[in-house]
TrEMBL record, chain A:
PANTHER family: HYDROGENASE-4 COMPONENT E. The keyword Transmembrane applies. The keyword Membrane applies. InterPro entries: HyfE-like. It comes from Roseicella aquatilis. This is Hydrogenase-4 component E.
From TrEMBL, chain B:
The chain crosses the membrane at residues 31-56, 77-98, 110-133, 159-180, 200-223, 267-288, 295-317, 337-356, 368-390, 415-448, 469-499, 519-540, 650-668. The keyword NAD does not apply. Residues 123-409 form the NADH:quinone oxidoreductase/Mrp antiporter transmembrane domain. It comes from the Bacteria. It comes from Roseicella aquatilis. Its main location: membrane. This is Hydrogenase 4 subunit B.
């Protein structure tokens, strides 16, 4: 399966779309727009999973797509939005690394992911190779987002992107059991709850969600 | 045959489990040590069968690491060391059987310790060998730390664990380099692809440091004089007699066997230098220590040094294409390893018997025990004479062969090596003389003279089983001493492994060196000595006009003390451990061991007593341990800064690590 064949091209398109949205996440300056982009990435993930289910004739992947659509495209963005509105949080993105350098670092990470994955998987099925490189890029960009943003909600978004990348990798491999996706989705839900509790705690105690504020209250550093 | 070996190993593991289950039951000690005795004798029998018969096919066990089933096998070299393990393990287990039971926590590690050593010897791949080696290290650490109420024992156990970790940190990369070069973990593949260039040099350095840290080679010997006294006596016997030899087996296997026979002649030089320095430093320290077990541990350093000297010579001769001389040097090393293992086990068991019976290990609190413990004293005399390398006992045979091979060092055409070999010969001879002085001092202070304390005067002979355990190594020492030629021909398969060529040994009961120019016939020496002794005895008895009379001991001119205060005489009239050590401390200790003494004389009119302080410090403490401690301090301060990192910086750290690893992977793929 190579370029020019429909199953490959569509999978490639959807994976590339997810990667593109990871970049979009990096340059947004408003928290609301970040959440919208995250929801869009969830939709694309659902499409990718459904397409893989169609190509591999694996009906369980439709379930995965459904879970992705429900949880990642609808429920979690809604929850985050509610959180944002109810708590009246800052709507601007507070960065530790500027938008321009973040994008440059992101491009470098994508190059690294391609350099790592393509030679290692040489000789495997083409569809898994390209998908794996895209998925690794999405994972790395999610981690980059977690460390370059100060806002706790944006860190949760970075974690979600990371999980999206993992699931993209999982659905690209034929014969991956469903259990993995289900548990991953559950894990993300749990993580979101933890993140929500974390945000509420900060809000209650210190009246801000800037984690930089938290560092002064750890006790060790005075 | 290997099935029997596997059964013995399984028995030991079962015993360890049973020891946990039995707990504090009064029969637990008897069951565990009895089982260990059976397993040890099994090891010795299997090893003898392997040495006498043809080497057996390796046996594939039904379990093992995930990538391959474990395979155990015995070639000449491992069988030789397994024989040593069986003999020393048997004597130590027998002694423990008769000894009053120690704390229950010493029971489970003891079979594991034996099993770890046997597994190391029986391994046919690097993974199993390192697994056994680490099992041996951890089990013996648990035994060293058994008596952990005392602070010095805790410190000794900590130091011991540190050196065990160092040994692992050196040996694992050494085997890894070989395995990476060969592409497989088993010995046959490694042998087929000997390392070259910097890899070979790295294997040499890492192997010498890793095995040397476990065997107690200078400068990695500091744990040995601290850990051996901390362990129970039968364990310290096994540690000194067998464990250091297992480390030497790993050294020989790694450098002489797995690295191939084509390594250059200079490979022997590091071993030669380290061995000679260890021999002298160990023997000198043995003369200055005033604790019996510490003294014996220092003597172990000396003997390990001599064995490594022999291995280094074998490497050098093999590299210079001097096959017969390589066989001679390797034979000396193997013979001395076995002999030292046996007589040092006996000596440590004697120290344990004395500790139990007379209540102390300190030479200054013992004395005159030959009257109360005649059998123990006899065993100690045999062991001490062997350690002092007196003919016709076993210690002499190995050291004689070793000196013969050192003296043949001029046959290597390199002038620098000739000079080194001459220096090594001088140092080895000096070490032998110093060891003789140390053994004389130990035997004289512990067994001769009069008791120095009331507790020492109340000593009694140990139980019959313990006496048997003492007589077993003593008897073997005499036997091995009388028939070294037979023993050496038994070692022929091991010599073939070490030198890479079929060993041509002159047949016969005695030893010959070189082209038969010099020889040593212990049986003749023994007969000659016996004849002279009998003649002297006969003459004295016949010529003496009157019957033998026992008189009071001459008091060196001191006035007899009041007998109700000091029934054993004034202790001041007897020589002390420090007093006998003084000449050597002043002569050699001041330059080599930073020995110091100071007299504090009260001014006229003051009523306090004058004091004389003397002591020494091992240079390895200042040169090796102090910088290591400072480095650890600096590293921990750096690591402490990580605790103050923010969440984001912690995440960045792991992210940077991940990206770095991915970049490394990409770089490797691109090459």
């Amino acid at each position: 399966m190579t370029f020019g064949q429909l199953p490959y091209d569509v999978a490639h398109l959807l994976g590339g779309g997810m990667l593109l949205i990871s970049f979009v996440l990096l340059y947004q300056r408003r928290v609301g727009a970040v959440i919208n982009a995250l929801a869009l990435q969830g939709v694309l993930l659902a499409c990718a999973a459904a397409w893989q289910g169609h190509v591999q004739s694996a009906p369980q992947l439709y379930l995965t797509a459904l879970i992705a659509l429900g949880a990642k495209a609808v429920l979690i963005p809604l929850a985050l939005r509610t959180l944002l509105r109810r708590l009246d949080l800052h709507r601007t993105v507070e960065t530790a690394l500027g938008v321009g350098p973040s994008l440059v670092a992101g491009v470098a990470l994508v190059a690294l992911a391609i350099l790592v994955v393509l030679p290692i998987t040489a000789g495997n099925r083409a569809i898994a190779r390209e998908d794996l490189a895209l998925a690794l890029s999405v994972v790395l960009l999610g981690m980059l987002m977690m460390i370059t943003r100060r806002n706790a909600i944006l860190q949760v978004v970075g974690l979600m992107t990371l999980e999206n990348g993992l699931i993209l990798a999982a659905v690209g491999v034929a014969g991956m059991p469903l259990v993995v996706e289900l548990s991953t989705a559950a894990l993300v839900m749990v993580l979101l709850v933890v993140g929500g509790v974390f945000v509420f705690q900060i809000r209650e105690r210190f009246d801000t969600v800037d984690i930089g504020f938290l560092e002064r209250h750890r006790g060790e550093s005075g | 045959m290997l099935t029997a070996l596997t059964l013995c190993l399984g028995l030991l593991v079962l015993l360890a489990a049973a020891a946990v289950a039995l707990g504090r039951s009064p029969r637990a000690g008897a069951i565990v040590h009895g089982g260990c005795l059976v397993a040890s004798l099994g090891f010795a029998a299997v090893a003898l069968a392997a040495l006498l018969g043809a080497p057996a096919e390796p046996l594939t066990l039904p379990f093992g690491p995930p990538w391959a089933a474990a395979r155990i096998g015995l070639d000449g070299l491992s069988a030789w060391f397994l024989l040593l393990l069986g003999l020393t393990g048997g004597a130590a287990s027998l002694f423990a059987l008769g000894h009053p039971p120690g704390p229950a926590r010493t029971l489970p590690p003891f079979p594991l310790f034996l099993a770890g050593m046997a597994l190391t010897l029986a391994a046919t791949d690097a993974f199993l060998l390192l697994f056994g080696f680490e099992l041996m290290s951890l089990a013996s650490w648990a035994l060293v730390a058994a008596d952990h109420e005392k602070a010095e024992n805790r410190a000794a156990a900590r130091l011991y664990l540190g050196f065990a970790v160092l040994a692992a940190a050196c040996l694992i990369p050494a085997f890894g380099l070989l395995a990476g070069h060969a592409g497989a973990l088993d010995f046959a593949a490694m042998r087929a692809a000997p390392p070259e260039g910097w890899q070979a040099a790295a294997v040499l350095a890492l192997g010498l440091a890793g095995a040397g840290a476990k065997a107690g080679l200078v400068p990695l010997h500091v744990w040995l004089p601290l850990a051996h006294p901390a362990a129970p006596s039968h364990v310290s016997a096994l540690m000194s007699g067998a464990m250091t030899k297992v480390a030497l087996y790993v050294l020989a296997r790694l450098l002489l066997d797995l690295c191939g026979a084509a390594q250059p002649s200079w490979w022997g030089v590091p071993l030669l230098v380290v061995g000679a320095v260890s021999a002298v430093l160990g023997a000198l320290r043995a003369n200055l220590e005033d604790d019996a077990k510490t003294l014996l541990a220092c003597s172990t350093i000396e003997n390990v040094g001599l064995i490594v000297l022999g291995l280094g010579l074998a490497l050098a001769f093999r590299g210079a294409d001097l096959g017969p001389l390589a066989t001679l040097a390797a034979g000396a090393a193997l013979l001395h390893a076995l002999n030292h293992g046996v007589f040092k086990t006996g000596l440590f068991l004697v120290a344990g018997a004395v500790l139990h019976s007379a209540g102390s290990r300190r030479l200054d609190r013992l004395g005159g025990l030959i009257h109360a413990m005649p059998v123990t004293a006899g065993a100690a005399l045999v062991g001490a004479c062997a350690a002092a390398s007196l003919p016709p006992l076993s210690g002499f045979a190995g050291e004689w062969l070793l000196l013969q091979s050192v003296l043949a060092g001029w046959r290597v055409s390199d002038i620098a090596f000739q000079v080194l070999a001459a220096a090594a010969a001088a140092l080895a001879a000096m070490a032998a003389a110093l060891a003789a002085a140390a053994m004389l001092r130990m035997f004289g202070l512990v067994f001769l003279g009069r008791p120095r304390t009331p507790r020492g005067a109340g000593a009694h002979e140990v139980s019959a089983i313990e006496r048997a355990a003492l007589l077993l190594p003593a008897g073997l020492t005499v036997l091995f001493g009388l028939f070294p030629g037979l023993l050496l021909s038994l070692a022929a398969p091991a010599l073939t492994v070490l030198t890479g060529r079929p060993a041509e040994l002159p047949p016969g009961l005695w030893l010959t060196a070189g082209e038969g120019a010099s020889g040593y016939a212990p049986l003749a020496v023994f007969l000659l000595l016996a004849a002279v002794l009998v003649a002297v005895f006969f003459l004295v008895r016949r010529r003496s006009p009157a019957a033998t009379q026992r008189g009071p001991v001459w008091n060196c001119g001191f006035i007899d003390p009041p007998s109700h205060l000091l029934p054993f005489g004034d202790p001041l009239t007897q020589p002390t451990a420090g007093g006998i050590a003084q000449p050597l401390r002043r002569m050699l200790g001041e330059s080599l061991l930073a020995a110091h003494e100071a007299v504090d004389m009260p001014r006229p009119g003051e009523t306090r007593a004058a004091t004389h302080r003397a002591g020494f410090r091992d240079p390895a403490f200042a040169l090796l341990l102090a910088p290591a401690a400072a480095l650890r301090e600096r590293l921990s301060i750096q690591a402490e800064r990580l605790r103050d990192f923010t969440i984001r910086r912690c995440l960045s750290l792991s992210f940077a690590t991940l990206v770095g690893l991915l970049a490394l992977l990409a770089w490797i793929e691109a090459r």
